[in-house]
Write a structure and sequence with these properties.
Low-confidence stretches: none
Number of strands: 8
Number of helices: 9
Mean pLDDT: 93
Strand content: 5-15%
Order of helices and strands: EHEEHEEHEEHEHHHHH
Radius of gyration: 19 Å
Length: 250
């Protein structure tokens, strides 16, 4: 078809997770079988296809975005829902582990840089900022002007919440499930120095990202679910808000 270069959008989920807080790199082998959701497994297997194409000599560049946040998340995506639930209090219990949060605008620019500057067969992490889970909760609440008690819980308590979510998931979308608990209880840290050095990739402050995302959601009337029964069934309200914004975007 005359395509000279392919940029494959993978995910940090396609990479492994080293012990402790050691950051993963583009070369960290996947080791999350049994700990992750099917979506992450799909990213792992797609990554294998992309790497096979690279090994065959095709001009394929693979990028690995971390967990993206920011304005314009009209569905919203799982990360957007997470932010809204932290604001509203549906997510009130925090345990070990951490995430890497990145601005979706930086990820978009990273794709263009990979297209224009990436080495043939190159692989680049488009990660952002490593945040312990408690820091993520506190930062989002502070930027959102929310003052609410945060409960630190041991791993067994989080595992119990995940098991309850597994049961809920049989009939409705759960707030959390056991695989999510197992995956996010790890320290998901990533080193994007290769993308910075070879592509000129940059990361804006995560405070700016979260503030812009919160403002965007609130200006468009997205719900911030709490722990009440009505709040726990906000899927339709989320869908309606997303549909309104989708029409506005068009």
């Amino acid at each position: 078809a005359g395509v000279r270069r392919v940029v494959l959008t993978s995910s940090v989920g396609a990479l492994g997770v080293p012990e402790g807080t050691t950051p993963a790199t583009e070369d960290t082998p996947f080791d999350q079988f049994g700990r992750c959701a099917h979506y992450i497994l799909s990213k792992h297997f797609a990554n294998l296809v992309g790497r096979a194409a690279q090994d065959e000599g095709r001009d394929v560049v693979i990028v690995y975005p971390a967990m993206p946040f920011g304005p314009g998340d009209h569905r919203p995506t799982p990360t957007g829902k997470s932010l809204l639930r932290v604001l509203g209090g549906a997510y009130f219990a925090v345990g070990a582990g951490g995430i890497n949060a990145v601005d979706v605008r930086d990820v978009a620019r990273g794709h263009l840089l990979a297209l224009e500057r990436g080495a043939p067969g190159g692989r680049y992490l488009l990660s952002g900022h490593d945040l312990p889970m408690e820091d993520y909760f506190r930062l989002v609440r502070r930027l959102g002007g929310v003052q609410r008690r945060l409960v630190r819980v041991p791993p067994r308590a989080l595992a119990a919440l995940g098991a309850v979510g597994d049961l809920v998931g049989r009939v409705a979308e759960p707030l959390i499930d056991s695989r999510t608990v197992r995956y996010t209880s790890q320290h998901l840290t990533y080193d994007c120095s290769r993308a910075e050095a070879e592509l000129g990739y940059t990361r804006r402050p995560i405070e700016e990202t979260f503030a812009d995302a919160i403002a965007w959601f609130r200006e468009r009337g997205y719900p911030e679910p709490g722990i009440g029964l009505w709040d726990l069934t906000t899927r339709k309200r989320m869908t309606r808000a997303g549909a309104r914004q989708g029409v506005a975007d068009r």
